[in-house]
Specification:
Elements (H helix, E strand, L loop, with lengths): L4 H6 L2 E11 L2 E4 L6 E8 L2 E5 L2 E6 L3 E5 L5 E4 L6 E10 L6 H4 L5 E4 L7 H12 L5 H22 L7 H6 L4 H9 L7 H7 L4 H12 L3 H18 L4 H7 L5 H12 L3 H10 L5
Antiparallel strand pairs: 1-8, 2-7, 3-6, 3-8, 4-5, 4-7, 6-9
Helix pairs in contact: 3-4, 6-7, 7-8, 9-11
Length: 279
């Protein structure tokens, strides 16, 4: 059972290198735009400051993952300059991406605790130090690979306690979640989903809510609306979208869309045109 491929095919990530070198004072990202960020500290130390979290002093080679737009500052001392590789991350679907939404505001992990990522990290650092043709394109693709491997690591080690990624890491819930992701057009019942997980209906519903923070029906609604939002951004007609995500008519999709977002599909698209960074 592949817990990530459908997610990544629908809501993938594109990386773009924007810094390779040292920071010996203050590097501030006050306006993150529509991007997440991935910082790799290869040597030195840095204090990571962000408004929603306490300051964090990072003294070991580490990965700093901020999957959603978040103003942040990295402060390094002149005596111990930080050597960093940094990339922006654009998740398909923007703020509607359920994968990035399921992750914490920031995640900081020491590189020596990530053996699954070791070979990609080695390749990344070697490529950054060389002057080969296509260097930036290679680094961008390696950052994207690194994100996928990081997600694998979180699933394998059950690195998150709540949300979609925690559900996918849960051996009792993962199969039913994958089924919803793979077949959103199916009229799933709680009994059918519980059967996929070899649980009773009541036990499944209670455990699902405890781990994901919502009912199976609410989760399926959220997944379907996220898919619809992505297809709307691609310019697909709403009649086709409705059928693809499990609604018998455009009006039924519009009602579900409004229930989830507070707006009709048309008004939601207008709001994005008025504020493209919210996409």
């Amino acid at each position: 059972m592949d817990r990530l491929s459908t997610l990544l095919s629908q809501f993938g990530v594109r990386a773009r290198l924007f810094h390779s070198g040292t920071v010996c004072s203050v590097a501030s990202i006050g306006d993150p735009g529509p991007y997440g960020y991935l910082h790799l500290l290869r040597s030195g130390s840095v204090t990571l400051h962000s408004p929603k979290e306490p300051d964090l002093l990072v003294t070991r080679p580490s990965l700093m993952f901020l999957p959603r737009p978040l103003p942040h500052t990295m402060i390094a001392s002149e005596a111990d300059p930080a050597k960093l590789l940094c990339a922006t991350l654009a998740f398909d679907g923007g703020g509607s991406n359920p994968l990035s939404a399921s992750l914490p505001d920031r995640l900081v992990l020491a590189l020596d605790e990530l053996p699954m990522l070791a070979e990609t990290l080695r390749w990344l650092f070697e490529e950054a130090a060389a002057e080969n043709c296509g260097k930036e394109a290679v680094l961008d693709r390696l950052f994207e690979l690194l994100v996928i491997q990081l997600l694998r690591h979180l699933l394998a080690h059950q690195g998150l306690s709540t949300g979609m990624m925690a559900g996918l890491a849960d051996p009792r819930l993962s199969r039913s979640l994958v089924q919803m992701h793979n077949m959103p057009q199916r009229a799933w019942t709680v009994s059918e989903l519980a059967s996929e997980s070899n649980m009773s209906r009541a036990s499944y519903a209670a455990h699902f809510r405890a781990v994901l923070g919502q009912t199976p029906a609410d989760y399926l609604l959220s997944w379907r609306v996220s898919l619809a939002q992505k297809r709307l951004l691609q310019g697909r007609p709403i009649a086709l979208i409705a059928d693809e995500v499990g609604y018998e008519s455009p009006s039924a999709l519009a009602r579900a869309f409004r229930r989830k977002t507070g707006s009709s599909p048309r008004d939601w698209m207008k709001s994005l045109q008025a504020d493209p960074q919210s996409a």
